[in-house]
Amino acid sequence: MNGEIELRARAGKVESTTEQYPDDQKASWLDDDTHLRSLGKRPILNRSFGLMSIMGLSCSALLSWEGILVTSFAGLLNGGPAGVVWGFLINWLGTISVYTSLGEMASMAPTAGGQYHWVAMMAPDAWSAFLAYTTGWLTTLAWQALAVSVAYITATLLQGIIVLATRSYTPEAWQTVLIMWAVALFSVLANSVTSRVLAKCESLILILHLAGFFGVLIPLVYFAPHSSPSEVFTIFFNGGGWSSQALSFLVGFPGIAGSLLGADCAVHMSEEIQSAALVVPRALFYTIIVNGLLAFAMAIALMFCLGDVTEVLSASETLFYPFLEIFYLSVESTAGACVMAGIILVLSIASTIGVYATASRMMWSFSRDGGLPFSSKLVQVNHLVFRVFL
Prior knowledge:
Blueprint: H1 11-18, H2 24-27, H3 32-38, H4 51-62, H5 64-70, H6 72-77, H7 80-108, H8 115-122, H9 125-165, H10 173-190, H11 195-223, H12 229-234, H13 245-257, H14 265-268, H15 276-304, H16 309-314, H17 316-319, H18 322-331, H19 334-368, H20 375-378, H21 384-389
Helix pairs in contact: 4-11, 4-15, 4-19, 5-15, 7-13, 7-15, 8-9, 9-10, 9-19, 10-19, 11-15, 11-19, 18-19
């Protein structure tokens, strides 16, 4: 990185800037560009996102209730029904605490770099550059890894649906790779439209995210036979053969925690959000609360409709994801199960758009501060999306 991050020289002005806007009435005065300049950054990107559209992007990228279905295998294998329910609740409460703090920092300094800018502001002078540089690399790599992961999930989910519909189909690894590339290309092209069009699309995706929840939950709960509350909330499972149930729960916990990854989308899109100092913290908080509720409800519903744990887990060998077998056993219809899974597939594809958008802004911001190789090329806005992904 070229010396200390630019933001640090301006850190003293941040507090006075945010104090000018203490309530909603004065929020209309908020001059985002002036605020950004006070943080040492030159405004470049168009501000097309509002609260609704950025929540749509955050909710779709977070993929919460959809994610708990996809990631439930690890929790079921190591933890069982009770492990999934209580593990998610613990994870949700911890995530709320984290994002409450992030929201406070975002209100103070809403920049696309997010975490590494805040580290540059708050770390001791002697460690500021090193810690900010390390944080920048970790955050950039994390978002790039998440982009690949979502593409992989989408590809394998599509293959799982095909297996569900046509049991004679045998998925091949090369097919997974090709589908991943197709999903990635689609996401890059979708992000190549103007930010105004992207913002409108994300508002529609938010509606689909909420409607899809009920489209899956209602038939699942209505048609499936239900387990007893004691089976859902007290039965743990050690399918991995670990030395203790506690260790098994801890092994399965990261898989459950994955359903709430990526909630900081709004932070990295903040230079494209109107009234960012107010909207970004609200988007962070609303997103994690709403999606946490949806995911927790889906987790409980899924565990009540689980049936035989061993049978469901064995289905992952052919269907990739146990929830596909749960759908089939619940509605007792291949077509019905495929439609329910298709809703999740569509939302998973929509998720890649938000994840790729966020990953590109994070890489662009870090390049702006000279933190990456070829930063002078990556920082060019007119070729931003293609350069950071190609």
